[in-house]
Specification:
By secondary structure, the chain is mostly helical. The protein has 10 helices and no strands. The N terminus is likely disordered.
Length: 202
């Protein structure tokens, strides 16, 4: 019951922030001359960031009353990430994981945040935990391969991660990106593992 109520409170906070942003934008359009066309993207970005900050403020007030609301914690962490506050995102993902320790999506998002902070080893640890919970978690495998190859210079590890990814990714746009990377790594490492299987898929 409490979880359901918290969800609706969170939804109310989000809608209130959104409506406030719309009304404020309408007032501005009616009272201020429009900016030059070259400034429009920057203005739109600023407006979006303001709306995210409004949502953060509302969620933080709600969490002050109910700090164990996992859904609110995840949304808060995602909002911190969107504002490039990756250290706060990591800490908030950790709090969410205290409520839901087997949430592979949260572990993956936390891993991406660690990478943005320049902490690749902690990112890999988060991805491995996600894959241990959900062996077919495609985005954990995808990101693991990127960090192993680009940050940790582990071509063999990256190849294994991406081969596992391709088994789960089907014909997604990410799979289209990864196939040539896998082909290159197989050539560089002298590996033929999975070559026939991928060829059959094509």
């Amino acid at each position: 019951m409490k979880k359901s109520q918290s969800f609706f409170v969170l939804l109310g906070v989000f809608l209130a922030g959104f409506i406030t942003g719309v009304l404020f934008s309408s007032w501005k359009l009616g009272n201020v001359a429009g900016p030059p066309a070259s400034a429009a993207p920057e203005t739109a970005q600023s407006s979006a960031q303001d709306q995210i900050q409004q949502r953060i403020d509302g969620i933080e007030r709600m969490l002050a009353v109910n700090p164990k609301n996992a859904e609110a914690l995840v949304q808060l962490a995602n909002d911190y990430f969107d504002l490039s506050k990756y250290d706060k995102a990591v800490e908030t993902y950790k709090k969410a994981l205290e409520m839901e320790p087997r949430n592979a999506d949260v572990l993956t998002d936390m891993g991406i945040s660690y990478r943005r902070l320049g902490r690749p080893n902690e990112a890999i640890e988060a991805f491995r935990k996600a894959v241990a919970i959900d062996p077919g978690h495609a985005m954990a495998l995808f990101n693991m391969g990127i960090i192993l190859k680009d940050d940790l210079k582990d071509k063999v590890g990256a190849l294994k991660a991406w081969e596992a990814f391709l088994e789960k990714a089907g014909d997604s746009r990410y799979a289209v990106m990864v196939r040539p990377w896998v082909k290159q790594l197989r050539e560089e490492t002298g590996s033929t593992q999975g070559e026939k299987k991928d060829g059959e898929k094509k």
